[in-house]
Design goal:
The protein is of the alpha/beta class and about 750 residues long. The chain has twelve helices and 46 strands.
Length: about 750
């Protein structure tokens, strides 16, 4: 017998599953007592209605019905319910008879709805629901005092004259007076309040005629910006169902007449959503029902208002049986074959390896729903329960902050959210006048395992990395690069070379960059290199007096660009960058004509450059001491849909791994990150240090010496494999150093 059936819903309302539907996914109708069927959602049992049973068994024409609340969240388009056969009887809906009551007959009711079609992302404001996504942004200034949002409120019943109530929630960007005006048809109502942050305003409108045309106007006396998170509305509607199903609220203790109801119908009282009541309707297309005291919520299930969920047979994976795994790859089934050679390499190195599918984690820790917190909670469990807990964790698959395509409904963002990023308020502004904190990807949060809140303890416990592949073909390229990098024979002179590339610290007039002196930061890194390491530098420096002071200073932007590419092409064990970053380019130089495509350019490295490199087999580990270079979670509008950092590891050339930040930082905070990294690298035995240990050392150095910059540690992430062996060593540690060659002597 199938242990469970996963039931996927996409709408709120009554859902119907037939016996034939269950049989099609392997459910044993003949040997499964219908009385013992149980449905659960998010850990709560949901009452079922059973129709057409024979001797406590489902037949192909039998029906199982249940009510589903509004499904979905930031990471999930729908909801998941679990249908199982248990030893005890399952929860069932009660069945009540209809009484017609006495008193005035009501022919109207209330239709309720929620408008939350999200299109605006604002990383600064979580909003009332905490997901940073908003229906709209309304901004006003003295020059343009009004901005307007319009919508047609969805619904199935005809609106009529009466009292409408609209509750609007959102976030205010400024601490000032706000005036929000709502309009439905010709009726208007306004709300005024003061303050910043999250807010909710409820407005009542007396409609002289039915209408679904809704308008919100920001009518503030001064400059103002508010973000609309959700609009919840109640409209007076006719209870003439026009042959369709629908939902309505009854508020008075009175009789209600439902007219033109469909022949194939059923009425449910769903005020208790986990335990609806079935109300037996008399025959006919027009019926009277008596409403009990207090508001009740009704669903008339019929055409347009009854749904068929998707069914998926489920056999649970017992993750408690996985008792050890120093290296953990969290990878979907679609990518496991492409990952297999890397798993074999790690096993050949004597490491215990586990490959865990993310859906196993979601099923065990979040009732089947996609959740970054579920992944973190699994790792917390593994650290406490496994005999050999995880040391290196690599998330296999791309991720995006917008998996449901809120910002761009045409984008196939679900394909880019194989493993979700852990989004958190970790990106701190460097503007003293506006020291706001905004949301960004915190891959380190997956490895902050102490406490329920990952940010309560800034010291990372486990090294986290990501191979941001969207397809098996992309992953194969990344895996083959890592294997070739780690298994290629030694010696190799390029592995003893470390390169440093700097954005200009001074402008053409000799003025210091407001972000600080990038040259000095890299000079500090140079001082950390041991003897036997060949240091290469390329500092872009358009200020003539300093540009002529050393051969590694380059005043010409085009020459600086080609020298940066040459550093890759000639091979280097590590290349570190310091300067201004952007997801699609490093540095901002004077304009020049790119020699590859003759287009005007102004950078030292761009997203197109990894495909122009010729360093396959001589791949560096790339360190970006710069802002935003690690923003893999924001898909750029480029032909590849990848950032520069992603292209460096997904191209056959480029880099074997990238360490970069998804957010902003301060220049002198990078000194601790690089110091911890290089100190751990050069203190380890040659060729034994693993990338995750090196980046953890950098993050821990930062926390130990500047814990108020913890956010920089939280935003730094590895694109690559956390268990990658850093095959970098001084020339004196290369195998040739221990070989003595005797000359041939003859007479």
């Amino acid at each position: 017998m199938i242990p469970a059936i996963k039931v996927k819903v996409g709408n709120a309302g009554i859902h119907r599953i037939t016996g034939a539907d269950l049989a099609a996914v392997g459910f044993d109708l003949a040997n499964s007592p219908a009385s013992r069927l149980r449905l659960d959602h998010n850990g709560r049992e949901i009452a079922l209605e059973m129709r057409g049973l024979e001797n406590d068994r489902l037949t192909p024409t039998s029906e199982v019905r249940f009510y589903a609340d509004e499904p979905g969240d930031r990471w999930n388009a729908g909801g998941i319910y679990w249908l199982t056969v248990q030893a005890a009887a399952g929860k069932r809906m009660t069945v009540d008879a209809i009484t017609t009551g006495e008193g005035t007959t009501q022919t109207t009711g209330i239709e309720r709805g929620r408008l939350s079609t999200r299109r605006v992302y604002q990383p600064l404001y979580p909003g009332p629901d905490g997901d940073h996504w908003f229906v709209a942004q309304l901004s006003a200034s003295t020059a343009t005092p009004q901005t307007i949002f319009t919508a047609t409120l969805p619904g199935t019943l005809a609106p009529v004259a009466g009292l409408a109530v609209v509750s609007v929630s959102g976030a205010a960007a400024v601490d000032s007076p706000h005036t929000l005006r709502a309009r439905i048809g010709a009726a208007t109502s306004a709300a005024t309040w003061t303050g910043s942050g999250n807010w909710t305003q409820t407005l009542s409108l007396t409609l002289s005629a039915g209408s679904r045309q809704f308008t919100l106007t920001l009518d503030s006396p001064a400059a103002d910006t508010v973000f609309i998170d959700a609009i919840e509305w109640q409209l007076p509607v006719s209870l003439n169902f026009a042959g369709q199903g629908g939902a309505f609220r009854a508020t008075a203790s009175s009789r209600y007449q439902l007219s033109n109801i469909p022949a194939d119908r059923a009425l449910y009282d769903v005020v208790e959503t986990t335990s609806p009541r079935v109300l037996n309707l008399p025959a006919g297309t027009s019926v009277l029902i008596e409403n009990e005291a207090g508001p009740r919520e009704y669903v008339l299930a019929g055409p347009g208002a009854i749904y068929a969920p998707a069914l998926l047979p489920h056999t649970p994976i017992d993750l408690s049986a996985q008792r050890d795994g120093e290296v953990v790859y969290i990878a979907p089934a679609s990518l496991r074959a492409a990952l297999a050679p890397l798993v074999a390499l790690r096993q050949s190195q004597g490491l215990s390896v586990r490959v865990i599918e993310p859906q196993w984690i979601y099923d065990a820790w979040n009732y089947g729903h996609v959740s970054p917190d579920a992944i973190r909670n699994f790792l917390r469990y593994a650290r406490s329960a496994w005999s050999r807990p995880p040391r290196y964790v690599t998330l296999v698959g791309d991720g995006t902050f917008d998996p449901l395509g809120f910002a761009d409904a045409s984008a196939d963002n679900l394909a880019s959210n194989i493993i979700p990023p852990y989004m958190a308020m970790v990106d701190a502004s460097q503007d003293p006048a506006n020291p706001a904190v905004s949301e960004s990807a915190c891959e380190t949060c997956y490895g902050l395992l102490d406490g329920d809140d990952p940010l309560s303890d800034p010291m990372p416990d486990v090294a986290i990395a990501r191979l941001p592949a969207r397809t098996a073909a992309e992953l194969s390229v990344m895996v083959n690069k890592i294997i070739s990098y780690e298994t290629a024979p030694l010696p190799a002179a390029w592995r003893s070379q470390v390169g440093f590339v700097s954005d200009n610290a001074l402008d053409e007039q000799g003025r210091l960059d407001s972000a600080g002196d990038f040259n000095t930061l890299l000079d500090m890194a140079v001082a950390l290199q041991p003897s036997g390491v060949a240091v290469q530098r390329m500092y872009y420096d358009p200020y003539p007096p300093s540009a002529n002071s050393a051969p590694w200073r380059e005043m010409d932007a085009r020459a600086a660009y080609t020298r940066t590419l040459d550093m890759f092409n000639s091979g280097a064990g590590i290349i570190e960058f310091a300067g201004h970053g952007h997801p699609l380019q490093f540095a901002s130089t004077a304009p020049f004509q790119n020699p590859y495509d003759n287009a005007t350019a102004s950078y030292l490295l761009s997203g197109a450059d990894p495909d122009r490199m010729t360093n396959a087999g001589r791949l560096p580990i790339a360190l970006f001491m710069a802002c935003s270079m690690g923003r893999f979670h924001v898909t750029p509008a480029t032909s590849s849909g990848q950032t520069l950092a992603e292209r460096l590891i997904s191209s056959p050339n480029g880099a074997v791994a990238v360490w970069a930040s998804s957010g902003k930082g301060v220049l002198w905070g990078h000194q601790y990150l690089q110091r911890g990294f290089y100190t751990a690298l050069w203190n380890a035995a040659p060729f034994t240090a693993r990338l995750g240990d090196l980046t953890l050392a950098g993050q821990r150095d930062l926390i130990a010496n500047a814990d108020f910059l913890a956010y920089m540690s939280w935003t730094y992430l590895i694109l690559g494999d956390a268990a990658t062996l850093a095959r970098v060593a001084p020339a004196s540690a290369m195998p040739w150093a221990s070989t003595v060659y005797l000359p041939s002597i003859s007479r």
